[in-house]
Design goal:
single chain; mainly alpha
Length: 75
């Protein structure tokens, strides 16, 4: 569990902001049984080509629904 004392070790405001952005995303993946590493790799690859109006499809919930439980085997 990440608590407020963990933010003491962010080293910078930018690092704390990045951690505050990624922690909920990774937590959402974990709750849905998604491998966060696989999810982030695929989403970061797709985000370049997908139009802005389709970004909602890349949230962990919607992404998992389109993948139908695929937990992420690379290769």
């Amino acid at each position: 569990m990440v608590g407020r004392k963990n933010w003491l070790f962010a080293r910078s405001e930018g690092g704390a902001h990045a951690a505050a952005t990624l922690e909920p995303l990774i937590g959402s993946c974990t709750l849905r049984g998604i491998d966060p590493w696989f999810y982030l790799r695929e989403v970061l690859d797709r985000i370049q080509d997908d139009p802005a109006k389709r970004l909602g499809e890349l949230t962990p919930r919607n992404w998992a629904a389109t993948r139908q439980g695929h937990t992420g085997e690379l290769g």
